[in-house]
Amino acid sequence: MYERLARLMRFGMVGGGVTLIAYLLFLGAIAGGLHYLVASVLAWAGGLCVGFVAHRHLTFGDRNGWRGQIWRYIAVYLLQLLFGTATLAALIDLAGLAPWLAYPVNIVFTATFSYVLMSRMVFRPAADVQRA
């Protein structure tokens, strides 16, 4: 129980840093005149690169082979991109939020989605892998 809570806290800290980087990329891209969906994809790509290394080592402390993990991580992030883009569009186009506000609100949805998938599909603790 304690380890799962500690891992969730590490996920929040690492994810917060990765999200800050992605958000700054997003703001820069929309300030540069890009459509919010294009800006979101660019921010996502930046988060993908930084996030894999940070989550692998700091959040999950995983030392298993990274080659298989990278493909599962990319798959999870592609799912997150689809989910996050749909919810971002809903927040902006349907709920009427400004892009600068919708992006951080959307993080609540995408962070939860990512944590569940990463902890179960990408960086499973060794004890879980042995039980499977």
Task: Set down the secondary structure blueprint.
Layout (H helix, E strand, L loop, with lengths): L1 H30 L4 H24 L6 H29 L4 H24 L3 H6 L1
Helix pairs in contact: 1-2, 1-4, 2-3, 3-4
Tally of separate helices: 5
Poorly predicted regions are: 127-132
- Gross geometry: globular
Helix percent reads over 70%
Strand content: under 5%
- What structural class results from the helix and strand content? mainly alpha
Largest β sheet strand count, sense and barrel closure = none
Order of helices and strands: HHHHH
The N- and C-terminal alpha carbons lie at a distance of: 19 Å
Number of strands: 0
Average pLDDT, rounded to a whole number, is: 85
Q: Tell me the radius of gyration.
A: 15 Å
Characterization of this structure:
The chain is mainly alpha-helical. Helices cover 86% and strands 0% of the residues. The protein has 5 helices and no strands. The chain has helices at residues 2-31, 36-59, 66-94, 99-122, 126-131. Helix 1 runs antiparallel to helix 2 (36-59) and helix 3 (66-94) packs antiparallel against helix 4. It is globular. The two termini are 19 Å apart.
